[in-house]
Specification:
438 residues; nine-stranded mixed beta sheet; BirA Bifunctional Protein, domain 2; binds magnesium ion; 27% strand; Rossmann fold; 23 strands; binds adenosine-5'-triphosphate; 31% helix; alpha+beta
Length: 438
Amino acid sequence: MRLSRSLLPTLKETPAEAQIVSHRLMLRAGLVRQTTSGIYAWLPAGYRVLSNIARIVREEQDAAGAQELLMPTIQSADLWRESGRYDGYGKEMLRIQDRHERELLYGPTNEEMITDLFRQSVHSYRALPQTVYHIQWKFRDEVRPRFGVMRGREFLMKDAYSFDIDHEGAVISYRRMMLAYMRTFQRLGLRAIPMAADTGPIGGDLSHEFIILAPTGESQVFYDAAFETIDYTGDAFDIRSEADLARFYTLMTTPYAATDEKHDAALFEKLDPARRREGRGIEVGHIFYFGTKYSRPMNFTVTGADGRKLHPEMGSYGIGVSRLVGAVIEASHDEAGIIWPDAIAPFRAAILNLKPGDAACDGLCEQLYARLGTAALYDDREERAGVKFADADLLGHPWQIIVGPRGAAAGRVELKRRANGAREEISPDAALAKLLGA
Ligand code: ATP
Ligand code: MG
């Protein structure tokens, strides 16, 4: 993208309404704009980040054998009456009436709808287990929408649903999803810790929240440093192997980890002080095993191997895709702005033309831009160098290629790595090799 003709409205001033750093930076960097309380438009750079996160989430869901589908945002109230949740869900649910006075709602989650879809088509134990997921907008009329996209009213969630014929199978589906989550968060450059959690309105009896550490997190968390050294993305665990999943699950549930709600100070004190970790955390994912909580009231049965009808055992698994954009920024920024992890940056590099109109600068920048294509944001604006440096740091591109008149005349550019500030003067080809190779 050429910055001179991009909808990338950066702000110099800190917006007064933003209380936390990610919200401030998302507004200042022109990633989002609030359209009404708790509802955001994703501008081009922000939408790229959101899409990159969604892509990584999708790849790990696919690798775990989950099938992607897409369910609608609008649901019928009747389905929710079947499960008994319609009245109980309360004011967080946005209830809508159509012109025929039929009761609809904007989905806050999809357990009922997916149970209905399975009940229509799956009738035998032979068709199970199955896990499906979608990445879709949700609406929850939060009492206090705040912190920008971290607690919005409309937000993007990946929600997955598993169906198994028995408890043993459901536990394996649950563990598999837990590993997929740990891999997802690691690829996003985040250290997440699974913590035993209350099940809330989703219900059920086994549940973990995935918490990432950030000083502005909403809950206090306590955990064992053992979590800090595990690599989930390597060969250590085969996601198709039940034995590996069992070993992985033991590793996730043995060391101490708890949010303030479930914290057991006495148990935590028993831990070697060198391994005790305490901080604030942000919930970025939540998984539930709830057995037949929906299949039973909604009368979803399949024929078992012995010919008898049984209610499938279910789980559901959420990741806050839009919340993650804010959470990543909370975990990765400095005074100058965002520091995007390479995997999700909106642009791999910014090309800073320090003297538009100078033939050598323009020529070199155009060449670089042609080579990098959509991976680059080309700052071709008629602005002072200082403004360009500040905006590039604010936007947090992993790399900056700085092209000034003296360097350009000598066929040199300056390459800056945002994460550590390292700069070097090199040839344009060497710069390209470096940032495309890394
Ligand atoms: P919270 O405790 O933060 O209100 P929740 O427990 O109600 O969240 P879940 O039903 O577990 O949320 O939803 C799955 C994921 O969706 C959460 O882990 C979170 O990352 C995300 N999420 C939930 N509510 C919001 C929201 N209002 N804005 C943005 N993301 C959200
Ligand atoms: Mg939750």
